[in-house]
Amino acid sequence: MSPRNPTPLQSLLLPLKPASLQCLHRFIEYKRTPLAHPVPKRRTAAVAIILFVGRKGDLYVLLSTRSGELRTYAHDTALPGGKYEDGDENEEGTARREAYEEIGLPIDTEKVRCLTLLDPFVAGNQLIVTPVVFLVTDNTINPVLNPDEVTSLFSMPLAAFLHDRPADIPGWNFGLSERVNPAPLGTVPPPERPPYTDNEDGGVGGRDGRYYQYRDVNWGGGMVRMHRFLTGREGGGVKPVYGLTAAILLHAAMVGYGEAPSFPPAAPGQRTMVQRIAWMMKRGGALPRAAEAEGLLAAWLDEDDGGGVDEKAKL
Description:
Residues about 175-200, about 205-210 and about 310-315 have low confidence and may be disordered. The two termini are about 35 Å apart. The radius of gyration is 20 Å and the shape is globular. It has helices at about 20-30, 90-105, 245-255, 275-280, 285-295, 295-300, and strands at about 45-55, 60-65, 75-80, 80-85, 110-115, 120, 130-135, 150-155, 210-220, 220-230, 240. The chain is built from six helices and eleven strands. By secondary structure, the protein is an alpha+beta fold.
């Protein structure tokens, strides 16, 4: 139970596997590491990691496909979320509002419980993003998608982001072949090569295919590992989970299940999030401009950033 919600979780949910119950308790007990210095409100955002219990007691996370009409990251697989707006009480408030606007998730603290806030991430557009972990305790909730922002909703096991082979993921029958409708050669033009396949050397997965891949990019003052996970729905046009969304879900799975993934989670010598933010603060852009406007820049200029150079990267 939590101070805000005195009713024990297990009394509200389908039968939970021991690992799932332990995962929920780890989230409830988790204390995030605060950033070294405050960041400007206008450059903050939050995403909702919305968990629910499957029929066999495993934990699943909701993912959405972004509308093709959006200006940024159209058609990407993502978590509900967005930028802070005036009127949002805190990061939880931002995540709840965005989840309601995008997929109709009720703003109800009993039916949708907040378990914890995870450590913040910095995105490629210089937003500081806080993941907020929620648990749906009412299985009668029906999503209502906002077609201007979301075109589809699906789920994956949270534990999927700890594994490089689908066969090792509990509670998931991963498969691509039954979702692909073969067509005669030459009748369909080949699609453009997506960016998440640029580095074939990072692929693993054995006979199950390249379920997991990575590539290391020079960004934020040093090398950063970019993860990519197949959803099993690529035959229907759904993109893999990659970039910032993959990094957030990997971290969430590590926190919840209390274990390291089956693959190295970071690039050799990868800098901390605080070092990457400090590096950005010293090199111009939307984040340092906003920090200066709010009187927050000076403290970051004294922070160790680890040095380094940068190339464009999609996170």
